[in-house]
Fold these 3 entries.
Entry 1:
Amino acid sequence: MSQTTQIPCEGPSPDRSDARPHRDSFIDDFRRFFVRGLAALLPTLITILLLVKLWEILWDYLGRHIIWIIKQLSVRPDRPVAQVKSLWDYTLSLWLVELIGVVLAIVLVYVVGLFVGNFIGRTAWRLAETGLMRIPLIRFIYPAVKQVTDFVLADRKRHLPGSRVVAVQPHASGIWSIGLVTGPGIRSLAESIGQEMVTVFIPSSPTAFSGYVVVVPRQSVVELPLTVEEAMRLLLTGGVITPGQSKTIAEPLRQPQRPDSQPQLNPLPLPPTT
């Protein structure tokens, strides 16, 4: 009786090439680490660039002229122009002259701030602005520039003491925009429609210092538990940097309601009208 030997059938051998770990190419490694390095260095480089530009503005538009005035005032009968010029142009190094000019420019800006900070200075400054507004070309450029500088550099604690961060629907239902309550609405508009209105400034992103203004009913805005600085940081980064969710909030966030229902919200404190 013959015995049959069965040989076990083995399946196809696994492809050992698939088990090898995948290694990125040099181009992939270079791109990945270059992006990481750029992300680490870019904030510092941009900060240095802004400081350098600020230095150049202070020197080119203020410091250089202050040094020129000092040169003219230093000329005396016993100290001729050639001696003064030799002192500033040859004896002192160029970086030291620029440093003196920039420091004097900063002092000048501080003195101007002190001057316009009191009543007499503000009155004189407003009279000067009124005179500038009578010049044909300047009166079209100066107001727009002044609005931008006032928004960027003005003291928000004094000008917007009651500014609140809110969400509004300026375009369509269900699409919310972040804005700042800057004041009460137009009185004639509120009287014509019979509702209390508020003025909301909606910044653009990422240029949060520009935007547009809407006048909306007070009941149609949703108050957000954010500060003005947190809202600006959110807009400047395009939503990448969001405020911490673990922050303790004194007042709970109001959830947006459906368009067919009127949201019941707490009244918003408004900044005093000027």
Entry 2:
Amino acid sequence: MENVIDILKKPELKNPVAVVGSQGLRSIGLIAVDHMIMEWKLEQFATLHSPHFPIVYHGLPYEGTQGVAGSAVRDGVVNIPKIEFYEKSNIIITRGYHADHEGQYKVAVKVVDFFKELGVRRIISLGGFVHDKFSLDEERRISVCGTNEKIIEEVAGNGIGVDYTGPFLGFSALVLGVGMSRGIEGIAIFGQTVPDTENPLSPDPVAAKALLEKLSKILKIEIDTKGMEMYEEKILLQEQEDIQKPPQPKEENKRDYMGYV
């Protein structure tokens, strides 16, 4: 078996936009797409399965690390890792999954080829970033980068800056880059966060909420984020404690991470 896309029900689309999120820095992109899927009560129209999807990673999933194949059991139900595709109002919500080192580029190409078949005109990848001048007293910064200057100028402004320089790792980044090479323009939108050195994947719904509020304006569609507010106070208190902690010596990260299913 290689990378296989199973189409459950092909939606009627007209110049759709693909929104992509996956497990990454503080899981911001994943939280954002999961919230849209739950808020809009969407059903999958397609899935992608791959022999390159570990269930346990020997390192951070978005670093293209090796892992162990298997299934996940939740509430007695067995599931295997997959990429999930949903649709609403010509927006293709893509819930990504990180492939291992050998498969990450192949999976991204498969997804972008599928986008081309569906007529996708733009890719919007979601993620997180760390800014040196972070302050908990300010609103979360939102930063954008893009495949050309025109699209950056179109999106930047109204609280969206061009503040991040550095690597963008994993599935969402590769889909954006491969899309550019295949003629699909795109942007990445990053929500500002504080790194968690003990678990870089620990969720930051505060950043995800700020990200969704800007995405809502870009897509010109309502995304109700009220359901995310219950997490804010707890997360903000935790971040305040983290910032006040004395710096700890760096240790090599050798822990394993579960994939999400």
Entry 3:
Amino acid sequence: MKIRLFIILLFFISCHHIQDTKYEVLYNKNLTEEINKAKVKQGVENYTPLFSEIKKEDIKKSTDAKKDKKKKVKIKEVIIKSDSMNFERETSKAVFEKNVKVIAEDVVLYADTLESNDYKKEAYAEGNIIVNYKKGNVKLTSKKIRYVDNFNKVIANGDIKVDKILEDGNTLTMFADEVEFDIENEKLLASKKKKRIKVKMKNLIAFADKISYDDKSKELFMEGKPVVKKQSSFFLSEVIIFNTDKKTIKLKGNIWSKLFYNEFEKTSKEIEKSQKKLDNKQ
């Protein structure tokens, strides 16, 4: 008896589904006819399409565009190791001490102590700070450091030294009181607090109140009374831009320069050659 009742119910449900499908098709047909009538009345040019008329590929393009905007390289996981850890329940603060090691994908931080209310988002570290960024070939040492935004940004203070290994194998070394390291965008920004920032490279030394380095453009941007000495030549201006890849120097505003004789001689010969080429064309 139960089996028969189940078969009858199943038959009834399937019939009901068939009727629903039939009415759905009929409804869509009538809707399409109404849309076509509206097009004729309003004119195709002035007609505003309904959602049902939007093409699937248009929706896909819109979705892809939104996805592209959200694409950012973010550090997702932060791991901390230390000899000891104390947790304060009242303040929800965790304090890590002795041989502290923080691992965040390509970034490794070493310190004596580290404290935080949410170490995955933000933390403060002190004592014998070393930050190694393997992907960007950057090593930073300082007295104090604070990382924010899931370790995507690092702010260092006190006796900072930054070593950046360039693509040609040379090392760019920066000395400063305060450095902000944007790991996500691969940018270094040093600002003067007490001492002027100093940058050293092969055959080059520079001083300025504010210096930034963009690893994507390979440009060292200097402002705030910048001075550059390349071998025995001197350059002064309001802004100096040095390209670490092309080894070119750009000067902007109140330019003063003193070229070493050998370099000046080379430059003069190049100018003479270009002038001769122009004369021959004329």
